[in-house]
Design goal:
By secondary structure, the chain is of the alpha+beta class. The protein contains 17 helices and 25 strands. The strands form seven sheets. A seven-stranded antiparallel beta sheet has the order 4-3-5-2-11-10-12. Strands 6-7-8-9-13-14 form a six-stranded antiparallel beta sheet, covered by helices on one side. The chain is elongated and about 70 Å long. It starts with 5 loop residues before the first strand and ends in an 8-residue tail after the last helix. Bound molecules: iron/sulfur cluster. The site of iron/sulfur cluster (SF4) has 11 residues, from helix 16.
C-alpha cells in the first residue's frame, strides 16, 4: 500500500525460561513491523528441537494449539518479509536441519552478497538445498566444516560468507548469537528474570519487561548454555569501521527502540529539525504522513516554529488480506489508508513531511489529496536524502531503474508530484542528526558508497547464476 523500502526480518531468542515459546511469540509480535509474510519459532526441550513455521502474522497464526507443540525452556524466533528466495512456506525461518553433530536451527536477519556463488559451490560438492533463501547456506557450511565444535563450525561458516547477518543458532543445550563484522543489522542482548534474551530491537525487550544489557558487537559471538552462563568472543575481526544501516533510523526500526546507542524517536525528530534548518519555507501548518513521518514532522515544527497538526488520519483496519479494488474504484488507492483532514488543510500553506520517497507513487497521491482538500500551497519535505541505489544487505528495495531519485532530479520529481516545493534532507544533515560517528553507518542507498561491493557482474554472467530465485539480482541492481 505504501511506497517504502521494507526491512527483511526480525529475530528473537530466549534462554532457559519456563515460558520460552510464549515469550518468543511476544518478542516476535513486537518485531512484526520487520516482516509480515512468515513467522517461526523453534524451541529446545533439552534433548531435541521443535519447530513451527507459519505464513502470515504472528498473532493470527501462532494459536494456542501451535504453541503447545513448542516445549522447552529455550527458543528462537523469526519474522520475515521475503526478499532473497521469494515468498514460500519452505523459506520461513527458523531453518532447522539434522546433521552429523545433531540438530541445529538458525534465524537470520540480513542478506549475503556471495550467496549465489557459495550455493553453486556447495551444490557441486553434493549439498542438496531445501529452500531458496540464502540463510540455508550457513547450515550447509556448518555441516561440511571439519572443525570439532559447533562454535568453531559456525565461525568457519561465517568466515566464508560476505554480507549482512545477525544470526541466532539453536542446538540442544545452547543458544548462540553472531553479528557480522560490519554490524549492518541490529542485535541486542537483554535479561529477563535471570534468563538471557536476544532481539533485533529493544522494543521486543520492552514488551516482555526484559532489561536492555548491551548490543552484540560487530564480529562478536555469544554462547549461552548451562545455568545461564554467557561467553562472549570476538569470533571474526571487526571491520575497521562499523557499517550500521542508517535506514533503521529513517524508517525501519520502531520509534520506541534504542538502536546503535540512540533513541530512534529522538533521532527522527532531529532529522526533522535539521530538515527545517536546511530547507525552511514560510507556511501555516506542518503535517506528517502518518505514522512514520510523525517524529520528523514534530522536529520540523519545533525548529521552524510552524504549528504541528495531524493533517491525515490513518486507518489501521486495512489488513493484508484486503481485496484488490476493481478498476472502477482503484483510484481510491492510498485514501483507504490515509484520509486528509480538510479543516487542517483548507486555505493553508502546508508543509507535509514523509521519511522517504521510493518510487513516488504514494507521494503523488498525498500531494493530490492535499490539493483536493483545499491547500493553498503544498511544500513536500523528506527527512532523508534521495534514495538513489538499491540495498544488498537485507532490505527489500526496488531496482535502480524504479527508484525515482536515481533517474530524476529533485526539480523533476517536484514537477511529477505537482508540489509547490520539494526538498530532501542532506546526507550530512542525516548523519549529523544521529549524533554518532559518521563513519559508523552504511548509507549506500543514498550515496552509492557500498561497504561491501556486490562482487559479481550479473549482466556479464560472470557469476554463472541463471536462477533469479537464488540470486535475486538483475543487472540493473548491480552497483
Ligand atoms: Fe541500510 Fe541503505 Fe545500507 Fe541497505 S544500503 S544497509 S538500506 S543504509
Amino acid at each position: 500500500m505504501f511506497d517504502k523500502f521494507h526491512d527483511e526480518c526480525g529475530i528473537f531468542g530466549i534462554f532457559n525460561h519456563e515460558e520460552a515459546a510464549r515469550y518468543a511469540y511476544l518478542g516476535l509480535h513486537a518485531l512484526q513491523h520487520r516482516g509480515q509474510e512468515s513467522a517461526g519459532i523453534c524451541t529446545d526441550d533439552g534433548e531435541r528441537l521443535h519447530v513451527q513455521r507459519v505464513m502470515g502474522l504472528v498473532a493470527e497464526n501462532f494459536t494456542e494449539d501451535v504453541l503447545q507443540k513448542l516445549p522447552g525452556r529455550t527458543g528462537i524466533g523469526h519474522v520475515r518479509y521475503s526478499t532473497a528466495g521469494g515468498s514460500h512456506p519452505k523459506n520461513a525461518q527458523p531453518f532447522q536441519i539434522t546433521f552429523s553433530m545433531g540438530q541445529i536451527a538458525v534465524a537470520h536477519n540480513g542478506n549475503l552478497v556471495n550467496a549465489g556463488v557459495l550455493r553453486r559451490q556447495l551444490e557441486s560438492q553434493g549439498s542438496i538445498f531445501q529452500a531458496t533463501m540464502d540463510t540455508e547456506i550457513f547450515v550447509h557450511l556448518i555441516a561440511r566444516s571439519k572443525k570439532p565444535t559447533i562454535e568453531e563450525r559456525i565461525v568457519d561458516a561465517c568466515r566464508q560468507v560476505q554480507g549482512a547477518y545477525s544470526l541466532l543458532f539453536l542446538v540442544p543445550g545452547k543458544l548462540i548469537a553472531v553479528r557480522d563484522p560490519f554490524g549492518f543489522r541490529p542485535l541486542v542482548l537483554g535479561k529477563h528474570d535471570g534468563s538471557w534474551v536476544l532481539a533485533s530491537e529493544t522494543t521486543a525487550l520492552s514488551l516482555i519487561d526484559a532489561a536492555f544489557v548491551r548490543e552484540i558487537e560487530p564480529g562478536e559471538m555469544v554462547v549461552i548454555q548451562g545455568d545461564n552462563e554467557l561467553q562472549s568472543m570476538q569470533a571474526l575481526p571487526a571491520a575497521p569501521h562499523r557499517r550500521q544501516c542508517i535506514f533503521e533510523f529513517v524508517y525501519f526500526a520502531r520509534p520506541d527502540s534504542f538502536l546503535f546507542g540512540h533513541n530512534v524517536n529522538e533521532v527522527r525528530k532531529r532529522m526533522g529539525e535539521q530538515l527545517a534548518r536546511e530547507s525552511g519555507v514560510a507556511a501555516d501548518v506542518v503535517i506528517p504522513v502518518p505514522d512514520s513521518g510523525v517524529p520528523a514532522a514534530i522536529g520540523y515544527a519545533r525548529a521552524s516554529g510552524i504549528p504541528f497538526e495531524m493533517g491525515f488520519i490513518r486507518s489501521h483496519y486495512i489488513g493484508r488480506t484486503f481485496i484488490e479494488p476493481t478498476q472502477q474504484i482503484r483510484h481510491f488507492g492510498v485514501k483507504l489508508k490515509l484520509l486528509p483532514v480538510r479543516a487542517v488543510i483548507e486555505g493553508r500553506r502546508v508543509v507535509v513531511i514523509d521519511d522517504s520517497i521510493v518510487r513516488s507513487t504514494t507521494a503523488k497521491k498525498i500531494v493530490k489529496m492535499l490539493w483536493d482538500a483545499g491547500a493553498k500551497e503544498v511544500h513536500m519535505r523528506v527527512s532523508s536524502p534521495p534514495t538513489i541505489s538499491p540495498c544488498y544487505y537485507g532490505i527489500d528495495t526496488p531496482t535502480k531503474s524504479e527508484l525515482i531519485a536515481a533517474t530524476h532530479s529533485v526539480g523533476e520529481i517536484r514537477e511529477m508530484l505537482n508540489a509547490t516545493t520539494l526538498a530532501y534532507l542532506s546526507l550530512e544533515g542525516m548523519i549529523a542528526a544521529t549524533r554518532a560517528d559518521g563513519d559508523s553507518f552504511c548509507h549506500a542507498c543514498f550515496s552509492e558508497q557500498y561497504p561491501i561491493p556486490f562482487p559479481y557482474d550479473c549482466s556479464a554472467g560472470s557469476c554463472g547464476c541463471s536462477d533469479p530465485d537464488v540470486c535475486q539480482r538483475s543487472s540493473d541492481r548491480t552497483p
